[in-house]
UniProtKB/TrEMBL annotation, chains A, B:
SMART domains: PYNP_C. It comes from Defluviimonas salinarum. Belongs to the thymidine/pyrimidine-nucleoside phosphorylase family. Type 2 subfamily. Its EC number is 2.4.2.4. InterPro entries: Glycosyl_Trfase_fam3, Glycosyl_Trfase_fam3_N_dom, Glycosyl_Trfase_fam3_N_dom_sf, Nuc_phospho_transferase, PYNP-like_C_sf, PYNP_C, Pyrmidine_PPase_CS, Thym_Pase_Put. It is an enzyme of class 2 (transferase). Keywords: Glycosyltransferase, Transferase. This is Putative thymidine phosphorylase. The keyword Transferase applies.
Length: 502, 502
């Protein structure tokens, strides 16, 4: 059987199956029948030098798929990038080389550097199925990666992508482990630290399960989808940037693993540390501040959990050439007033511009974090970082630097506000004890965040406030009346997003 | 927002996504935009009383999907069974109730009966994604289910389906844990045991990853897709049957879990025991013989592993009202001469008909197993089962009973032979030490088994044989020249499917 006999013309299915490449093949096509593919769920696809293993879906109602053609899902099309008329070859796939390593981890064995290299290689080479990736993620969850394995995984993930070289300069970076809506400190911290003359090439994520990621919030104010050359230009000019990391392939395995980790949502310090530090190492950072909000509805639930995570971060950081400082912060309530890209951007600008009604809690956290970063300087006198950060903010130096960074990234734009809004009020009187982070985030997402940049929630009460019945709790912002109604229905059905006690 | 606003007309996508229900929705459809579904990967679908959670794939090239419609994959269509003009409602899905139980198992905790009931309920209720099922399967793999948990899982799986009631009769059953190509003892054992006057309502699987399942082999000779009423009629008339279990919903959770377990292929005694015994309990069995072939390329690799499995089978069996006997057999080589549905059927008939060239190893195993089953009779004198089984076989009683069972199941048909064949010969001289079970099975599958019923491999040499160079090793059978070539290319590229030593 010659190669031509196992080839098919490629068409684009126009079906988005997220990161999983899918091939659609007709049940009655000659290749499918000759090869016996219909019984498979996985299929090897080769186009010139590019090879992947995709999931096979057999098409019975063949109207839209021509004879002698196979259709590719969006992910498969992006990976293989066929030109018009291209034919790909289809084969029975061999089990991926990392099969035995994944199996070993499932059975509780310790994995070697070679094991992690094989696994990460098969992930970035698009040879693992979602099921195999889910098995790997599950097998590593909880406490099932020790520190040595976390180091190996971190290194394997870093080696899978680019590493930026800043020529020996001291490079600073920060990261927040998350779980706290509205905690949009990064753009302000970067502005302060760059205004202090330090180099801070900050890359951030878009939201995956939250109402806004830092990249979404920043994008309301300036372009973030820069490539590596543009990132360098901004940082070499202004000292800092806030760009979208997903465009940079700094840790390509992380981008793929995250799509499995997030829906499953298992706690795994090993995976979290490897994800964060592989990206920090790849961006060429040297001194890194990790913000760990702690609270019952945050990602890290207790001081003991924070301490354990901090220890792992420090140990792995050291092994990959990073000097890590961990800052434990309060994770009990959302930060600032806005939750959603534009609403958070407005909080950021309010703090930078020293508006009188700027959220004091956001300002406070920003100064804590920027101060801690400034204290990482090798020559710094201990403990004066926060005061220096406050001076740079209050003098307007941070605001000017932020505007300069936005201009360098492609141009600043002022955030606008959503047209459709509704205030949700207290159904009884009492002191506001707590705000459920997860539920308020859900409301913001039902309102349309982050896809709708102007959508989200604006908080109108803070923990500690004494409220009468009917007092405003929060305002839902939405870009369409339908989304507003949807979020409001959900909010009104929830008894205790805002926990009030008499 | 009224229900009508979140509803769409349903069309059939004609795309087979296996057991995972998928909904295809246009990116620009009103429901997708209003609800913000495009960011989701999972979506709730309700049609009348039926509700599932499906994976959402967003369609950008919308040619084949009309406006105001959503398309369903084959699995989703089969679950919801829309009538023409039906509109379904689409909602953001709540996390499944078993989420916390799965998470607990991932973190290594022991699960309760309520936990397993919730998990099995969400599986059969089609609320878990493939990723969540993969996480559950992974978390239970290796030794991570103890005996108490295995009992709870077995009970939960049994309760999820029908249990047949035989009115207090002594009901016998057998099962082989597998991994041994050609080991098609069941049709003959059932015939012998039924000829002895015992009741044996045997249900069997189709192949999932092997070249033939018992149901595939039996189906060459008689219909197997009987429903429960038909199964009862056959058993009440003839005492025994060999039918396809997949049609009977005896353990619906098992049917769904197996589609995740097989591609992942992790060893898990807990899952294996729960899978097997839930089906035996559901069919109303009381006395069960489990055949465990042991060998380096079988499913169970060592006597110690067999002993551990046997202990778990016995303990769980007792807890669910089954009297289990385990028969450890030789798993070092394929059994009989045929591998593939029709080729194995011909071996079965050769043994039943007492043909002079019937495979002696298959006959021997059949007598061992049938004998062991007869020895399970409460009133039986110990150890005479095998002799009784031999007498029933040699007298022709078993053959007559088999023909009667086939007639009762819908009619006997004589297996034919494939038209396209090729013999593979020894490339050097030597004694045949071993045949690699996994590789010979692969060759049979590449030749087209089990989809092509006549396809597979006919063994022409046995371990122990002294062979000269050029001696025939095996003959590949295929229904098309292309499949024959494909299998032959693979076979000729493999150096040591047949391990010869000088």
């Amino acid at each position: 059987m010659t190669a031509a006999d196992t080839s098919l013309h490629l068409v684009r299915a126009g079906i988005d199956t997220y990161s999983q490449p899918v091939v659609y093949m007709r049940e009655d096509c000659h290749v499918c029948r000759a090869e016996g593919f219909a019984a498979l769920t996985r299929i090897g696809v080769t186009l010139g030098p590019k090879s992947i293993i995709a999931t096979l879906n057999v098409v019975t109602e063949a109207g839209w798929l021509p004879a002698d053609a196979a259709a590719l899902s969006e992910a498969a099309w992006a990976l293989l990038q066929p030109r018009p008329g291209d034919r790909a070859t289809f084969v029975h796939p061999e089990p991926p080389a990392s099969d035995s390593a994944i199996r070993a981890k499932v059975y509780g064995q310790e994995l070697t550097e070679a094991d992690f290299t094989a696994i990460i290689g098969d992930i970035t080479g698009r040879r693992l199925s979602e099921l195999q990736m889910a098995a790997f993620v599950t097998a590593c969850a909880g406490e099932r990666l020790n520190i040595a394995e976390t180091i190996r995984l971190t290194r394997a993930m870093q080696r899978a992508g680019e590493t930026l070289d800043w020529g020996g300069a001291e490079v600073y970076d920060k990261h927040c482990v998350g779980g706290l809506p509205g905690n949009r400190t990064t753009p302000i911290v970067v502005a302060i630290v760059a205004a202090a003359g330090l180099m801070i090439p900050k890359t951030s994520s878009r939201a995956i399960t939250s109402p806004a990621g830092t990249a979404d919030t920043m994008e309301v104010m300036a372009p973030v989808a820069l490539d590596i050359a543009a990132l360098r230009r901004v940082v070499e000019t202004e000292g800092g940037c806030v760009v979208w990391g997903g465009n940079l392939a700094l840790s390509p395995a992380d981008d793929l693993l995250i799509r499995i980790e997030r829906p499953l949502d298992f706690d795994s310090d090993g995976q979290l540390v490897a994800s964060v530090l592989s990206k920090k190492a790849a961006v060429g950072a040297r001194r890194v501040l990790i913000d760990v909000p702690v609270g019952p509805t945050a990602k890290v639930r207790s001081p003991a959990a924070a301490a354990s995570l901090a220890q792992r971060l420090a140990a792995v950081g050291e092994a990959v050439g990073l000097s890590i400082a961990v800052h434990v912060s309060d994770g009990t309530a959302p930060v600032g007033r806005g939750i959603g890209p534009a609403l958070e951007a407005r909080d950021v600008l309010a703090v930078l511009r020293r508006d009188t009604d700027a959220p004091a809690d956001l300002r406070g956290r920003v100064l804590d974090l920027a101060g801690a970063l400034l204290d990482l300087r090798p020559d710094a006198a201990a403990g004066i970082g926060r005061a220096r950060a406050a001076a740079l903010l209050d003098s307007g130096a941070a605001e000017a630097k932020f505007m300069a960074i936005c201009a360098a990234q492609g141009g600043f734009r002022e955030p606008s506000a959503a047209r459709h809004r509704a205030v949700v009020t207290a159904t009884a009187a009492g002191r506001l004890e707590a705000i459920d982070n997860r539920r308020i985030a859900r409301i913001a997402k039902l309102a349309g965040a982050p896809g709708r940049k102007l959508a989200g929630v604006r908080l109108l009460a803070r923990p500690g406030d004494l409220l009468r019945r009917g007092a405003p709790l929060f305002e839902i912002h939405a870009e369409t009346p339908g989304e507003l109604d949807y979020a409001r229905s959900y909010a009104e059905a929830q008894a205790d997003v805002f926990e009030l006690r008499e």
